[in-house]
Protein: Lrp/AsnC family transcriptional regulator
Organism: Kineosporia corallincola
Amino acid sequence: MFVPASLDGIDRDILRVLDRHPRATTQYIAQDLKLARGTVLAHLRRLTESGLLAPATSRLDGAVVGKPLRVFVRAEVDQNRFDGLVEDLERVPEIIECSAVSGGSDLLIELVAADPDDVYRVTQRIMRCRGIRRTDSSFVLRQVIPRRMEQLL
C-alpha cells in the first residue's frame, strides 16, 4: 500500500466525491470532476489495488432487517484462550464488526439487535465464545456525526 502523501490532487478529488456519494458511478465522478472516464477508472484501479480504497460495499441500517438497536460491546479476553475466538464470534450473525483494541478491554464488538431482550440473548452468546471473560455494553442512542473522511483529504 502506498502512503497517503502519494495521493495526488485527482485522487483526493475522487475520494471527496466518494465520501459524499459512496455509490457514485465512474461516469458520475468523471462528470462531477470534469475528467475523462478513463482517467477516473485508472485512479480508482490504482487506489483499490493499493489497498487504500476498500472494495465497495452496501451498508444497511439494522432497522431494515428488523434490528434497529446498535450496541457496542467491550469484551475482555483470556489471551491464553484466544485461538478459535474469532471463528466463534463470526458465527454470531448480529455482530457486524469486531476490532481488537487497547485499554481496559480487548475487543470492541458492534452488534445490532431487535430489542433489549435480543441484546441480552446475543451478549449471552458472546459470553459462551472461547476466551471471553466479561463484557460491557453501551447502546447507541443517536449518531451525531456519521462516518466521514472527506475532511482529512
User: Anything to note?
Assistant: Residues 37-49 form the longest helix (13 residues).
